[in-house]
Amino acid sequence: MLGTTIRNRMLVVVAVAASFSLVGQNAAACDRDKLARLASGASLAAPVKTSVADASKQLAGSEMEHQGQGMTGLWQVIDTYQGQVIFQYFDTWHADGNEMFIDDTNPAADNVCQGIWKQTSTHTFKLKHVSWTFDDTGAVNGTAIFHDVVKMSPDGKSFKGTENVYVYDLNGNLIAEYVGDVLEATRITVDF
Q1: What is the pTM of this model?
Q2: Per-residue b/e over 15-43, b at no fewer than 16 CB within 10 Å?
Q3: CATH for 6-188, among 2.60.40.10, 3.60.20.10, 3.30.450.90, 2.40.128.120?
Q4: Per residue in 87-122, pLDDT tens?
């Protein structure tokens, strides 16, 4: 596997760009635009209408609402890679260990993703997304797996963490990876 140094990240971008030209535009069902943004390396900035700080002011409810909820609830997540915002989404963590998000891409580009999660320590959680990938014709050509590790704030109003993305062909061979996305989230509440 590739390391997390800048040199290795650049090699990943070059390798992904080369593999895209060989197998067609690789796009995950839930994160088609994210993978394209990561692979391009040139224009990672996505339009962000609300910053995490603004969302915190607008959406955070009382501390009492969050006691006992843990990660269960609705979150606004900002995803950055190498210091640039590449993605934002609304993320719902269900009490049964399932999770679903809707991102800021066009719904025609498959902007819904699902995953499973578990708590690993007092405020730390692991999340795994799985998704099919497709070529330019719409044919399935592999899978993308997203590994998130996040730590919720003690007051339950926010979390921060990292995400690593691994892209595989249909034979299970790793063809690309993106290591070190930074996730920042604010809990959305009914308080309005």
Answers
A1: 0.68
A2: ebeebbeeeebbbbbbbbbbbbbbbebee
A3: 2.40.128.120
A4: 899 999 999 999 998 888 777 666 778 999 999 999
